[in-house]
User: What shape does this take?
Amino acid sequence: MKKLLSVFLIICLLLPVAAFCEEEAASEAPPTPTEVRYHFEHRLLPQLLFEDPQQLFTFLSGDDVGIFYLWNNFTQNNGFDTVYSVEDFGQNLIEKDDGVLIYQLIMPDPEVTPLCNRIYLCWNVETGETGFYTIEFDDMFGVDMWYLCGWKPDGVHENYGYIESLPSSDENYGQLLQEEPDVVLALWNSGAIPEGTYNSFSNEVTINK
Assistant: This one.
């Protein structure tokens, strides 16, 4: 399926990469697939959400896997290798009370730190408030771990601590996908992680990257 991009999305898909490529040019080496994906997950998606959530949500809702077509447009328009197939992505739109919408974006299995397994786009249609949260992979100590993190509009990265995650082959994976958005919503609303869920949280430390 070929999707038409709005002028806003075209600009956002191209301009951030110009700066990205300038940074990489100093190393005289093209960006690796990991660096390209990091830029997409941690730079481009937050920018799209914070600048115009309606445009982003409209684009994603145009297809069952709109996130793949956004990724595909981003890579192809900038001469990067797409790497992944449509089957590697997924998304769920969750409607909450008081005009709150949450897009749960399921990303390809991350190979290295700090790529994401899932990304949450939060948007209150009535107030215009937005929130961007990630489930980030970390194998720093030789053990697969996951952290619930977030990006703020001013570019500050926040790490809220360890969170349990499951492979898609696990029998409880479906339950995780159902429960995790409520954890993210509670964090967005109050800054606190609800206790008594399937998650195990610790080390609520805010760090800047």
